[in-house]
UniProtKB/TrEMBL annotation:
It comes from the Eukaryota. This is Glucan endo-1,3-beta-D-glucosidase. Residues 1-23 form the signal peptide. Belongs to the glycosyl hydrolase 17 family. InterPro entries: GH (IPR017853), Glyco_hydro_17 (IPR000490), Glyco_hydro_17_plant (IPR044965). Transmembrane segments: none annotated.
């Protein structure tokens, strides 16, 4: 099995050298009562050449529809299971037996995300052990599927400019433990990085163009590095934090990013379309970030559909498609 992990590492290195080998993905949420059937949704993904998808929870119908689709999957565990996974290895084994083994022969799980955005917080303490037990269950079942955890930017302390990136005092112990585990497994850290939120919280200092990855933005200078957009700056802020806890070989996968189309200032179809198309263009260039030139960033756009069971306002308006599968706006995948 160690040889399989080494093989995965070699493949990841190959993908970093050849940008075309990686693709942008999309988050497929289910928090709506008017969404299309999973089979129709997966057909939509295939028709748009979207080859990667993230699922926030196991769903039998969706996983069945994904079988033999050629679409890679990040599959999340639910946060409420973290404590049981951490304390009871048999709970982790049961989850793997139910949600991975029946599908693994006919679809590719790119990562298992053990929890989402619980650091800092009461559930954070369970994440490292939960990750280790899910990883052990996968190993015992004969699968070398990388395990990770998805963090928000709230794990960071004051971090401007990006080279000053550092984890918060509260998050540092848990993040250090997680990163050392990821390093030992040649896995990546999943990061939810929305340029929308810094723009909304500090519009006087965060240019709209900078947040939208627009070439017209005034650049930000960080010592010898020049940042043309906030997306690169956020990714490199986390890389700086990773390095400061003594880890150097863990890559970042942006598990969520995007822009809403309604519900608040700057939340317009025009801005959302501009952000996502600029993002795809940036990642397709293969140039990496200023801190990590040439290292391709893999990213997942949030989200596939507008979801009407979320809180009213911005939360219902992140989708690229309406539930009837017509475009909210066009994105050039």
């Amino acid at each position: 099995m160690e040889k399989i992990y080494a093989f995965i590492f070699v493949i990841n290195c190959f993908l970093n050298i050849y940008p075309g080998a990686r693709a942008i993905g999309i988050n497929y949420g289910l928090n709506g009562d008017d969404l299309p059937s999973p089979s129709d949704a997966i057909s939509l993904l295939k028709s748009r050449n979207i080859s990667k998808v993230r699922l926030f929870e196991p769903n039998t119908a969706v996983l069945t529809a994904l079988k033999d689709s050629g679409i890679d999957v990040i599959l999340d565990t639910e946060n409420q299971n973290l404590q049981s996974f951490a304390s009871d290895p048999s709970a982790a084994t049961s989850w793997v037996n139910t949600n991975v083994i029946p599908y693994a022969s006919s679809l590719n799980f790119e990562y298992i995300a053990v929890g989402n955005e619980v650091i800092p917080g009461d559930l954070a303490q369970y994440v490292p052990s939960a990750m280790q037990n899910i990883d052990a269950a996968l190993f015992a079942a004969g699968f070398a599927i990388p395990v990770s955890h998805a963090v928000s930017m709230s794990v960071m302390g004051p971090s401007f400019p990006p080279s000053n990136g550092v984890f918060s005092t509260e998050a540092t112990p848990i993040m250090t433990e997680i990163l050392k585990f990821l390093s030992s497994k040649n896995s990546s850290l999943l990061v939810n990085a929305y340029t929308w939120f810094p723009r909304q919280s500090d519009p006087n200092n965060v240019q709209l163009e900078y947040a939208l990855i627009d070439d017209a933005a005034k650049p930000v200078i960080d010592n010898s590095l020049t940042y043309q957009n906030l997306f690169d700056a956020m990714v490199d802020t986390v890389y700086a934090g990773i390095e400061k806890v003594g880890v150097s070989n863990v890559d970042i996968v942006v598990a969520e990013t995007g822009w809403p189309t309604a519900g608040s200032t700057d939340a317009t179809i025009e801005n959302a379309q501009k952000f996502n198309n600029n993002l795809i263009k940036l990642l397709a260039s293969g140039k990496g970030t200023p801190r990590k030139p040439g290292k391709v960033v893999e990213a997942y756009i949030f989200a596939l559909f507008n979801e009407n069971l979320k809180p009213e306002g911005v939360e219902q308006n992140w989708g690229l498609f309406y539930p009837n599968m017509t475009e909210v706006y066009h994105v050039d995948f």
